[in-house]
Design brief:
eight-stranded antiparallel barrel; single chain; 2 domains; Lipocalin; 17 strands
Length: 251
């Protein structure tokens, strides 16, 4: 599990300029020399006209309603979600979707050498690399558009608490950092979008308010509550990294 790291000067005067009065490793995204932004500032930007990008399907659970976190032996954590007659499975290496197969007891899903046999709170996952004996340890309801109106992707982390959301219509990110002490609403641009690998990198659309957001499909667990998520998230501001978990929001 990854832990969030943040300095008290997360947003510098670069973001203060937006206020007009008185957010499983990224790159340096700003100057550490500028003074800190006044707390509880709210920063906005002019409307963005472009459309929001289509994110990798591995971030979404479709018609699935529940994420299940599994602790497996040999040591590995896995996240699953049932989608009709298939199973979405996330490991530390990425995501796979397995169609349902016939079995006498429980539920079995298989795609090539990869299979998952689930019976209640226990599962056996097999692949060409070996066999995992797993036990369900946590469950979380999948977020829907009714929970997060207008949001395409949502992420959160701890120490200190932060969260962010990507709008579903335009390339805009809303960030709340340092337990809500700093907030920002900014345009972004896509620098990497790899659907097959489930990897997306976004950077600020404002040169005077830099940040970088990296999203990768893979099993992620909230480092305080232990709840399961399908994406690993790293937000970098002023060279400081905030690490957490996220998911795509289905309509």
């Amino acid at each position: 599990m990854r832990r969030s790291v943040i300095a008290s000067t997360l947003f510098t005067a670069a973001l203060a300029g937006l206020a007009g009065c008185a957010s499983q490793s990224g790159q340096d995204a700003g100057s550490d020399q500028a003074p800190a932004v006044e707390r509880r500032g709210s920063f906005t930007d002019a409307p963005v006209e472009q459309q929001a990008p289509l994110l990798p399907s591995a971030y979404f659970v479709g018609d699935g309603t529940t994420f299940v976190g599994w602790h497996c032996t040999p040591r590995q954590d896995v996240v699953t979600a049932t989608q009709g007659d298939s199973l979405r499975l996330w490991t530390t290496h990425g995501a796979e979707q397995l169609p349902q197969a016939v079995v006498d007891q429980g539920e079995r899903y298989q795609q090539g050498e990869l299979s998952a046999h689930v019976v209640g709170d226990r599962a056996v996952i097999k692949s060409g690399r070996g066999r995992l004996q797993c036990e369900a340890t946590a469950r979380r309801d999948s977020l829907r558009r009714t929970d997060k109106p207008g949001v395409m992707f949502y992420a959160r982390g701890n120490e200190p608490g932060w969260h962010l959301s990507l709008a579903n219509d335009v390339p805009r990110i809303d960030m709340s950092l340092d337990y809500g002490e700093r907030e920002a609403s900014l345009p972004y641009r896509v620098t990497t979008l790899d659907n097959e690998a489930g990897r997306v990198i976004l950077q600020s659309g404002r040169a005077d308010a830099p940040f970088e957001l990296r999203i990768e499909s893979g099993a992620c667990f909230d480092d305080m509550a232990g709840t399961p998520w399908p994406a690993q998230v790293t937000l970098t501001v002023n060279g400081q990294q905030l690490q957490g978990c996220g998911q795509g929001i289905a309509p």
